[in-house]
Amino acid sequence: MTASPLFSAFRSSLSEAWASGAGLLLPLGFFAGTAALVPFTLGSDAELLSRVGPGILWLALALSSMVTLERVFQADLQDGALDLWLQDTGSISLVAAIKTLTHWLVSGFPLVLLTPLIGFMLGVSPDKMVPAMLSYALGGLVFFLWGGVAAALSASVARAGLLIALIALPLYVPALIFGVQVVDAGLESPSFLFLCACTLFALGVAPAAMGAALRLAAE
Amino acid sequence: MLSYLANPLRFMRFSRLAVPICFALGAIMIGWSLYNGLLVVPPDEKQGGDLMRAMFTHVPSAWLCMGLYAALAGASFVWYIWRHELADVAARAIAPIGAGYTALCFITGSIWGQKGWGAGWHNLILGDSRLMSVLVLFFLFLGYIALRAALETRQKAARAAAILAMVGIVNVPIIKVSVDMWQTTTIHQPSSVLSIGNSEPRAEDEGMNPVYLQQLLWGFGGHTLLASAMILMLMRSEVYTQQADRQLALKLEAS
Amino acid sequence: MSDRRLIEGRGLGAVRGERVLFRDVSISAVAGELILLRGANGSGKTTLLRQLAGLSEPQAGDVKRISAHHWIGHTNGLKAHETPRTHLQHWARVWGSDAEVGAVLERLGMTRPANVPCRMLSAGQKRRTALARLLLQPRDLWLLDEPFNALDTEGQSKLAEMIESHRAEGGAVIAALHGAAPVKASREVEL
Questions:
Q1: Which residue of B lies nearest to A210 if distances are taken between CA atoms?
Q2: C1-68+141-191 belongs to CATH 3.40.50.300
Q3: Closest-CA residue in chain C for B153?
Q4: Whole-prediction pTM
Q5: Is residue B18 part of a domain?
Q6: How many domains, chain B?
């Protein structure tokens, strides 16, 4: 499989995501909304908020990654595009990986860019902002990859949202733990290396699982 | 042995005998370990006094739930590669038993921990990495069962569930490591309390009394047999259900 | 016409749940043939075709795919935001084909709606767009699932003509069809 089919896959899923404009704003709104609710639930104690702020953002990131995942592969299954991808490309795993990465770029990466704003709102100290953004980017990638596996497995299930959450949440645990530690301890800590390792592992394993799951979903 | 049993007819003949035997032996061994553990052995004051007697259920179930998840993944792998129908039947039967043992392990662990951590028992659960790993394992089992239930045909359910189990097992070590790291760096418990949280006894530990270890091994053997009996029973019922469904499908089409 | 085999399925079987759809079906196509899969609803025509295409794993038997094939399922594979033109351009890029998309669209009478997003097209127009993929790249075997569905008489005769010229060029077609066929089949397989 040469690069040009993969580039085409990237372009088409990008324009698909772009065309469904609400789908793009949905996780952003969800992320910001969840974070904005925190002061109401925990009170306005500035010291407390700045301490729990990064953790709250992690939680919001994990949840909002799931808001849109339900549709990633389900739409392809329903309109028959999945059949074409399975037929005419060497590797459905690569296509699935491209689709997930595109998805992360469209609805996960903007959350990273939004982090300084919400972090500021929650009083997270500025020197933590760069590690936070970097670990949100890497952790978000892990979330989307494992979430993508769950979404591919339940692509033929009608209301898959809760099922995806149940399947994917245990797989989110390592990235969540290491990610929170990176925000606390900075980029020099071993946790950052562990987070990178988690990301690489997900990049290696999740596409194969997604490919197998999509073959099954098409049956 | 396994390839001999892969034939469903032989499996049914074997399991018909094996189920009652496993049940009986398992009950005797669990009974013996509980009798000794609850009534005979002296309580260990360092480990929570009489509450430590929960150990004789907690530790065998902790060993078992890890083993059962590995067995689930193993059966899934066998099904995925060789498409042995019986392997899928086994995986399907292991899941609820595994979920049950993770729940049992979690519950007994929190009962045991109740006294050990002065500030309230929930702190121990959420602060103890081993129990948290068990909780994550419980959700892995739960997700597996939910996925099976959601897919419409047996073939699809088998394939999707096998993929999920294999994805799960490669993640289990990572989850374990990460949860362990999480505890050492974020919850700063004094080590004397940690030793209560670290519930799995090792023979080389100086504090481990050999009378405890003996009962633990009896309990482990008994629970293994009990779990096997329950799994075999579920497998038998699944084989019967499939036969009945096949008949039903034929009948429905004929009418 | 040569005796060249393009695809060969032997002893195929399908089970859904506990229900047996079909068992021990063997089917092969040589160049120039048009094979129609016949059978009532639920007899497994689509499943057999998907097994031939490699989209569905046979529960028994095996399929030997000797030459490349096109697949048109009963879903069209169109995205709501795509236009017929961008859809064809996209797949031409994926397949590395340099076919003239405009000419392909014209052969199916889709020149006028070529730039309209698919969500605004009729079922027949979407079907024509999907069928246009067959002309993007020459492949020996066409696997078509109910290809005449949703087409008007003009579309049907266009497709029949496409199938005839494909056969004349040494290709073969296997199609699942439940209604009357507007084309003359060389063979029918009853399921």
A1: B163
A2: yes
A3: C17
A4: 0.89
A5: no
A6: 1
The reported pLDDT for the residue numbered B186 is 42
8-state DSSP, B36: I
Which regions of chain C are under pLDDT 50? 1
Q: What is the pLDDT of residues B169-196, one digit of tens each?
A: 999 999 988 888 876 544 433 333 334 4
- C-alpha A89/C-alpha A6 separation (Å) is 9
Residue B27 lies in a domain: no
Cβ partners under 8 Å of residue A24, min gap 6: A17, A18, A106, A107, A110
Q: Which domain holds residue B91?
A: 47-188+196-246
Find which of C16, C83, C90 to mutate to test the A interface (most A CBs within 10 Å of its CB). C90
C-alpha–C-alpha distance, residues A140 and B180, integer Å = 22
Listed by start position, the domains of chain C span: 1-68+141-191, 72-138
Give A39-85 pLDDT, tens digit per residue: 888 887 888 888 888 888 888 888 888 877 888 899 899 999 999 99
Q: How does pLDDT run across A158-195, given as a tens digit for each residue?
A: 888 899 999 999 999 999 999 988 988 888 888 999 99
Does the beta-carbon distance from B155 to C19 stay under 8 Å?
no
Residue A148 confidence (pLDDT): 95
CB pairs under 8 A between A and C: 67
Mean pLDDT value across residues B62-78? 94
What gap in Å lies between CA A142 and CA B146, rounded to an integer? Answer: 23
Say if B91 falls within a structural domain: yes
Whole-Å CA distances, C161 to A53, B249, C129: 67, 42, 16
For tokens 């999740």, name the residue. A206
Give the number of other CB atoms < 10 A from CB of residue B224. 18
The ipTM of this complex is 0.90
Q: Which residues contact B71 (CB under 8 A, 6 or more apart)?
A: B90, B94, B98
The minimum CA-CA distance between C22 and chain A, rounded to whole Å, is: 16
User: DSSP state, B41?
Assistant: S
C-alpha atoms less than 13 angstroms from C-alpha of A83 in its C-beta half-sphere: 27
